[in-house]
Amino acid sequence: MPFDHEAVVGFAKSFGLFYLLGLSAICLAWTYWPSNKKGFDEAAKMPVLEEEDRPWR
Amino acid sequence: MLADFTRGERTGALVILGTMVVLGLAMAIAGRHDLLGIHGWIVFGISLALTFGAIRQLDLPEPSPERLSEYYDAPTRTGLILTLIWGVVGMGAGFWVAALLAWPEMTFDVSWLSWGRLRPIHTSGVIFGFGGNALIATSLHVLQRTTRARLPDALSPWFVLIGYNLFCIIAASGYLMGLTQSKEYAEPEWYADIWLVVVWVVYFFIYMRTLARRKEPHIYVANWYYMAFILVVAILHIVNNLAVPVSFGSAKSYSLFAGVQDAMTQWWYGHNAVAFFLTAGFLGMMYYYLPKRAGRPIFSYRMSIISFWGITFMYMWAGSHHLHYTALPHWVQTLGMAFSVVLLVPSWASAGNALLTLNGAWHKVRDDAVLRFMALAAIFYGITTFEGSFMAIRAVNSLSHYTDWTVGHVHAGALGWVAMITFGSLYSLVPSMFKRERIYSQKLVEVHFWLALSGTVIYVFAMWNSGVIQGLMWRTYDETGTLSYSFIDSLVAMHPYYIARAFGGLLFLLGALTALFNVIMTIRMPAIGMAPEARGDLPAEPVMQAGE
Q1: Ramachandran angles phi, psi of B483, nearest 5°
Q2: Are the C-beta atoms of residues B199 and B167 closer than 8 Å to each other?
Q3: How do residues A6-19 score in pLDDT, each as one tens digit?
Q4: At B477, is the secondary structure helix, strand, or coil?
Q5: The whole model's pTM is what?
Q6: β-strand B253-255 against B243-245: which pairing, if any?
Q7: Is B126:B529 a contact under the CB 8 Å cutoff?
Q8: Superfamily of B73-525 according to CATH
Q9: Cα gap B400→B413, rounded to integer Å
Q10: What is the complex's ipTM, to 2 decimals?
Q11: Does the CB of A38 have a partner CB in chain B at under 8 Å?
Q12: Do A23 and B218 touch (CB under 8 A)?
């Protein structure tokens, strides 16, 4: 397959489309996976925790 | 500074500085018949001064092991001050070039005072000088607080901060001398570009090494944004600046790209500089400092993740909307347009997330000008991203492109979003970083807020008006099918708006000067716990002696 304009466009319109669709699906599934909720809720509290202002070790 | 360095780090610092002295001298000698030579002497001079400074401090006692039980904030402190200094320089240059557009005779026939040389000092000064230093300073703070790990060493953050500012100095001084590779927001020549790559890689490794030492299992979302900023800016910078210098003794280089490929690479870079420098990095700032200041966790953590991946996926493809109606293939233009429109979703998810976080804390927004800076930033972020998606549509672009509407759009983002979130974060960070009880004057923060807001509104409305008038004048035909207005006619119509724009910019500059003054006065206040000593540890004067 020659590396010309047509080939690049074909690649973008086939592989590129499914690549982005797949990535979006993985991202959405991971974000809304029920068992991940607890970790995210804890992470969200990180900036507002009133902990001692020093590193853990 | 060197007091924080271990013996090994002090040696490392001397080796680096020695190498830079030699490199500067080599540049000065190889480029003695070229402007490169002047830059060589600048590098040589700065490196030599730093070397002497380092040697003087070489015999200081080694830092105590107790330092490891505290965060390393010294680079952040210096970075915050540099942010404000570059802010004043960049915004001052902005005011000056705005005035030049209204009164062009103010170049006084001096080459380095010409608009073409001063304008990149404004853009680089505010984007890289002000924005870049703010991002480095805040990222090092957020990184340590959210991972609960100290920076891995003392040498590398100072290398990044000083090296980055050396890049900014080389860039700005080069523009004054007329050195540019004529790529917007990527004007510095090849040697400055190579230097920035070195600095940037070290910056990225600070992030990776600190993350590797973290205690928190989850990496807080602000760090994702900061890391996307560092990683993508590295990729953009390297690809767009691929060039071959005329010789090692010449500042001039030729880009690897030509024609429409050059335009596409440049605007792939240019728009992603907006996306990853001016958006992702500052979103990282927003996702940490806004919840912290409001005292409420972010409204939806999940939405911040969706926004993150949305922005990183889609911004990459949006750059071609800068090249509507050009030699670029039509489908590439359409691709850029489509992705720009879809980008509204993650952009508004972030803006909405920020505003919903404030829902229930509006009384704090009313009372606290610092939080109001951040709230306003989120509002302007929402306005600007909507406007950007709209302007990327080809039919809208046919009116807006090459007009001042674009300039207005950029400044709604730069003043309303980037600068507001920066000032908000900076005000909330300065007291704790310098261990002061509070900011010197809350009133001056309030003054700054209203200066910044009115300056932004005046600026943006002036440019919207000017831009739409320009666009309409350029496309008005009479019944014979010829253009109704000459270019000069549109120039005359823009004049009052250019005066208004310069005035808006002046208000914004005065706000930045207020911030600089307020921060300097804060640093001059006594530190927490130091107050009695500073006042003198003396008994109070008795009001009245017994028997009087």
Answers
A1: -65, 135
A2: yes
A3: 888 889 889 988 99
A4: strand
A5: 0.94
A6: antiparallel
A7: no
A8: Cytochrome c oxidase-like, subunit I domain (1.20.210.10)
A9: 16
A10: 0.89
A11: no
A12: no
